[in-house]
Design brief:
By secondary structure, the chain is α/β, with parallel strands linked by helices. The protein has a domain of 122 residues. The protein contains 22 helices and 19 strands. It has a ten-stranded mixed beta sheet, with helices on both faces. Strand 1 and strand 2 form a beta hairpin. Helix 1 runs antiparallel to helix 4, helix 2 crosses helix 4 and helix 9 crosses helix 10. The longest helix has 44 residues. The radius of gyration is 44 Å and the shape is rod-shaped. The C terminus is likely disordered.
């Protein structure tokens, strides 16, 4: 087939060369030389005719503008005419050279045109969908649209005002999520925006915490602010919201025990609000060590009274065991310096005239025991933001790395969806979507994931998560060209047929996600911008504060909180150590023996 194509190309080339040669010779040769050549050929032909006794009429030849009547024999005998004819050879050589180079030039560009046309027809054609482009092209497009934010990641700008549409940083441990957060925090600090930063492991505190200016919440750290539960909440609904995050619903199939425990806590805390001698320690003693009779009397007139009645002792004891299991984290607050100024996250949110950052930190040793407390603080902060008047210029950042390491924040999906009007900016980091799904359930996890518009995707070593990332980066519809070859014994039967077929393919394959090196990620921006691959630079930052200053005083132990000489109260403590099987068994007995007890 290649031989056939080359043979045809050579055939057309020589034909072109011949035509161009004739044209060039005709154009560059003087008329007298052309006529002399014509008469020379005419005379030669006459000599052939004379051999068979034929002749041609005489013809007129112009030489230097004068006419001469000549026949073939006389023309050939005149050296002036012959010399004039012989000039045609020089003009012919020049014309051929011109034609040769012209034909080479024309043939080259003709072949190039056919080659490009063939490549265009043989290559895939983009129809619609997502695209993957280089950094330079995307940056140029962003600046051209005047859409560049003052927040940059290694010189690459985010989209202006896109922070209120929230940010996702997704990838396995050690891939570069922390460096991305630090680069983002550098820009936020320059802006002067306020930040609520969840710092698991105390890795951001030494870099960004400013002594005597920023606020830190960590009951194991001497710098912890004197957070006050009753200053934080003013209405009964506030305490209910607090209970919802302090006592998370781990199993949706058994909501009764969790809902009952929430009601007991919220009613007790709300009623203690009017007590001038209220304290966390007093609240814990009431909920955990007071007898059921004392607790029922204290909660008289509230919806929680029937839940702790000694008439349904088994149910009340089981509810109380759930309360004690989740409220133990509050006991760590009792060792904070109570003489210092009381602090409220709600009031901190409502004050716009400062650029303070609020650090909610924990180290690995105490994190598990503080999960409920940290989750409650973050939930209160997000709900407090929704109470502010709308302001599209305000910016309050919620930086939550390793979100699945906390308890489920009940109002998080709704909060993320609504805070844009109030200037809230959520930056959520996680190692994998599977962790988020485990904590929040399939539907809520997808709802949260869908609200995060600016997305940094780092490496994920598992194929399932890599495939999820690949699908999140998007696909494109292309038109593929398919070639079919046919061969035959005769050369005219050989040929190629090209057909078009539409196909959808991911712009980044899941194997590319699996093999991403550290500090490299794919960035998907909001609006109609291509996906871009970033290669981040590692930056080591200097510490400006200690990462953790432990409190020297010993915290109250569980024995201090639960200790009571009453044998019934000791029984309560024993029940808190029982497994879920015991609670399930108690639930079955309660449902049979406690008709009419309904919790809403």
């Amino acid at each position: 087939m290649l031989f056939q194509i080359n043979a045809k190309m050579m055939k057309y080339y020589f034909l072109l060369l011949a035509l161009l040669s004739l044209v060039c010779i005709y154009l560059i040769t003087p008329k007298e030389v052309l006529m002399a050549t014509l008469y020379f050929m005419y005379s030669k032909f006459e000599l052939l005719l004379l051999k068979i006794h034929l002749s041609i009429k005489p013809f007129v030849v112009f030489y230097h503008g004068k006419p001469y009547l000549e026949n073939g024999i006389s023309f050939l005998s005149q050296w002036e005419f012959v010399a004039q004819y012989q000039q045609i050879y020089g003009y012919a050589c020049i014309g051929f050279l011109i034609a040769f180079f012209t034909s080479i030039f024309v043939t080259y560009y003709f072949v190039k045109y056919l080659t490009n046309r063939g490549k265009e027809q043989a290559s895939s054609k983009f129809l619609r969908g997502m695209t993957l482009s280089d950094i330079k092209t995307v940056k140029k497009s962003i600046f051209k649209n005047n859409a560049a934010s003052d927040l940059h990641i290694d010189g690459f700008p985010l989209i202006k005002n896109s922070e209120v549409q929230h940010v996702l940083i997704h990838g396995t441990t050690g891939a570069g999520k922390g460096q991305t957060l630090q680069k983002l925090l550098d820009g936020i600090r320059k802006r002067g925006d306020r930040v609520i930063l969840y710092d698991k492991g105390c890795s951001f505190t030494p870099i960004y915490y400013r002594e005597n200016q920023d606020i830190l919440l960590n009951p194991f750290d001497t710098r912890c602010a004197n957070w006050d539960l009753w200053k934080e909440s003013s209405s009964e609904s506030d305490f209910e919201n607090m209970a919802e995050s302090l006592i998370p619903l781990q199993n949706e199939n058994e909501p009764f025990w969790i809902n009952a425990a929430r009601t007991v806590f919220s009613c007790s805390a709300y009623k203690m609000k009017s007590d001038p001698e209220r304290s966390i320690e007093k609240l814990l003693k009431l909920l955990l060590t007071a007898s059921l009779t004392e607790l029922e009397i204290y909660l008289a007139g509230t919806q929680a009274a029937t839940l702790v009645s000694d008439k349904i002792e088994k149910t009340a004891t089981s509810v109380r065991s759930v309360v004690s299991a989740y409220l133990k984290s509050l006991r760590f607050l009792t060792n904070i310096d109570q003489k210092s100024k009381k602090f409220s996250i709600r009031e901190w949110i409502q004050q716009d005239n400062h650029d303070q950052w609020l650090f909610i930190s924990s180290n690995g040793e105490q994190h598990a025991s503080m999960r409920s407390l940290i989750s409650m603080w973050l939930a209160q902060a997000s709900l407090a933001l929704l109470s502010l008047p709308e302001n599209h210029e305000r910016r309050i950042w919620f930086i939550v790395d390793e979100l699945p390491s906390l308890h489920r924040l009940p109002q998080l999906p709704e909060t993320i969806a609504e805070v844009r009007k109030f200037g809230g900016c959520f930056v959520l980091g996680m190692q994998s979507f599977a962790q988020l799904e485990k904590t929040y359930g399939r539907n809520s996890a997808r709802e949260i994931f869908d609200l995060l518009n600016t997305r940094f995707f780092f490496r994920n070593p598992s194929s399932d998560m890599a495939k999820l990332v690949s699908s999140e980066l998007g696909a494109q519809e292309i038109e593929d060209m398919r070639e079919q070859y046919s061969y035959g014994a005769d050369h005219v039967r050989d040929g190629i047929s090209i057909g078009r077929q539409k196909n959808t393919q991911p712009i980044v394959t899941y194997s590319e996600i699996i093999n991403l090196p550290d500090m490299q990620c794919f960035l998907r921006l909001p609006s109609n911008y291509p996906v871009v691959k970033l290669n981040l630079q590692f930056e080591k930052r200097e510490s400006i504060a200690p990462h953790f200053l432990p409190i020297n005083q010993s915290l109250p132990t569980e024995d201090d909180v639960f200790h009571n000489n009453d044998t019934d109260d000791q029984e309560i403590f024993d029940r808190t150590q029982k497994s879920k099987k015991t609670i399930k068994k108690t639930a079955e007995i309660t449902q049979k023996n406690s008709d009419g007890l309904i919790f809403e």
